[in-house]
Amino acid sequence: MSTLLRTPIKGLFETPVELPSLIDEVPLSIVVLDTRRRIAMINRAFEALSGFSMEESKGIQCSHIMRSKLCIQKCPLENMDVNSEPVSVESDMINKDRQLVPVRINLSPIRDAEDNLAGFLETVEDLRPIKEVSSRGTHAYIFRHLIGKSPEMVRIFQTLPLLAQSDSAILITGETGTGKDLLAEAVHQASNRAKGPFVKVNCGALPETLLESELFGHQKGAFTGAVENKPGRFRLAHNGTLYLTEIGDLPLALQVKLLMFLDDMVVYPLGSAKGFQADVRIIAATHRNLDHMVKEGKFRQDLMFRLNVVRLHLPPLRERGDDIRLILDHFMNIFATRFRKKINGMSKKALKIIMDYPFPGNVRELRNIIEYAVNMCSKGQIHSTHLPAYLAETKHFYGRVSSEAGEGSGWASPVATADKEQSGQKTWASLERDMIIKALVKTKGRRNKAADMLGWGRSTLWRKIKQYKIDV
Amino acid sequence: MAQKILIPLYADQVAPRFDLATEVSVVSMADDGRPTEKKTVVLPRASAEQLCHLILLEKISTVVCGGIEDEYYQYLKWKNVTVLDSVIGSYKKVLKELESGTLRAGDIVR
Q1: Three-state DSSP class for A39?
Q2: Which domain CATH number covers B30?
């Protein structure tokens, strides 16, 4: 950049420094505009990206140098004032080499010492490397961190890039461990909001009062303990994606407030009459059957309609056929590398045990099983002895797993379901004894918790401990 | 030499993008560079393909524009259309430069 265009910065260091010496070394393209959207300064990275030099672009209207689709169709700076929030938009530009370059443009106001609008700061990110990588990675078996080649998963992978580009609300359903969080994050990463924040809120993890303040924020003094302003998750997710997991656990009162937000996209923090216009994409997920919940009056139908613009259902692992083998190999490679072990696959017997298992915990459970097996196996093949014992012991009890969509809760723990089965008396007795011992070990000898785990009353557990002569 | 020139417009400026222009000015010039006919064409929608079609239909010899994708630049060149791209400036000033025969690709007419 020419030294003729002097723009000293005073007060930052002991002696004034030139602004170009600061911004020229930043690898991100930077454009500084005056209040009339004319170029005040560009850095070296933008010179390289656009092909225009600082000398020729100074004083020129931004749209003639940027040459972005955004400039022509709807320049966000038109309505940007000193109080505006930064805007992040994906667009394209044509540089002097006549290349159409996909870019992500971030725009924000610059304020002077008196808080007046002094100009605008524009940063431009060249998305070509990212687009090339993602186009290479988007084959049928993988999308971001999701793997699968079953028809259901391939269909999801094919529709995801299209869905990601829209701003529609998405409802993700599926049993626990099927990858709902990964899917939500994949949608965000593939969307125009990828550079914006991805904010996750577990609606089931907080009590109602806390959740309201967590989601919508609060004003200082709104309630006892509100010692300062809190922005809330909706505001934090501005220009990005808000992921509401376990939406089925959202209290009814908050469902109304969420519905209001989805209608006008304005957040009113607790204790504040002033709203904040948030630009947020909502992705919600649940393992519950929302249709049933609506019928039971536990979930608002209008909210369901709002969220259910696009529904993605992740099938349980047991219905994904060959995906089990694909994911198994994937995790085996990952853990073998992580634990620095030379694992040469799995024995036929071990593989059969795995393939026969119905995976109530889905992919998460398979991952844990493989992690355990790789840990237990010193080298060579993974054998059945390296697998968690419960896989072989309880396989008969999993034959009748509910495959109802979104009804992960229909699955109970192996320990609790065991007593529903009718096995031979001798086998059953020994099995029940083992179950009790396992439950006691797991709960570190606490009988109350062990009884809860087994689905029995405390007295039943005590009676059975006596019956099987278990030494506690 | 008499020539026919097409300039995509964005308000009173040369349009920053060839493919996004919805209004073009077609200027016929006499041998001495004097404009003999001027007309403005409003396009139903922005499209580089339709604009190329119009250029060939109108038998345009020179296109003056801002940013243009290489695909369309090469196509027009192949069709013997001279393209002066990356031109920045107001329509009036650019036209004056054209008349005097001094306008070059990449010129910024202030």
Answers
A1: strand
A2: 3.30.420.130
Best probe of the B interface among A55, A93, A98, by most B CBs < 10 A, is A98
A73–B20 CB contact, under 8 Å: yes
Percent of chain A with pLDDT over 70: 88
Q: Quick check: A152 and A173 in contact, CB under 8 A?
A: no
Q: Under a CB-based contact definition with an 8 Å cutoff, are residues A411 and A402 in contact?
A: yes
**H or E element at residue A94:** strand A87-94
Q: In terms of Cα–Cα distance, which of B108, B104, B43 is closest to A64?
A: B108
| Total tally of structural domains belonging to chain B | 1
Of A60, A69, A99, the CB nearest to B108: A60
Rounded to a whole number of angstroms, the distance from the CA of A49 to the nearest CA of chain B is 14
Other CB atoms within a 10 A radius of the CB of residue A387 amount to 22
The pLDDT mean for chain A works out to 82
Residues in B closer than 8 angstroms to A64, CB to CB, are 13, 16, 66, 88
Structure tokens belonging to residue A215: 């989601």
Average pLDDT over residues B45-49: 90
* CB contact (8 A) between residue A60 and residue B66: no
pLDDT in tens, A241-264: 999 999 998 888 889 888 888 888
Question: Which of residues 13 through 72 in chain B touch A, CB cutoff 8 A?
Answer: 13, 15-17, 19-20, 46, 66-70
Q: Would you call B4 an interface residue with chain A, using a CB distance cutoff of 8 Å? A: no
Neighbours of A351 (CB within 10 A): 17
* A396 neighbors A424 (Cβ within 8 angstroms): no
Instruction: Tell me what ipTM this predicted complex has.
Output: 0.95
Task: Please indicate if any CB of chain A lies within 8 Å of the CB of B11.
Answer: no
pLDDT at A402: 39
Ordered structural domains, chain A, with CATH: 8-130 (3.30.450.20), 138-314 (3.40.50.300), 319-398 (1.10.8.60), 412-467 (1.10.10)
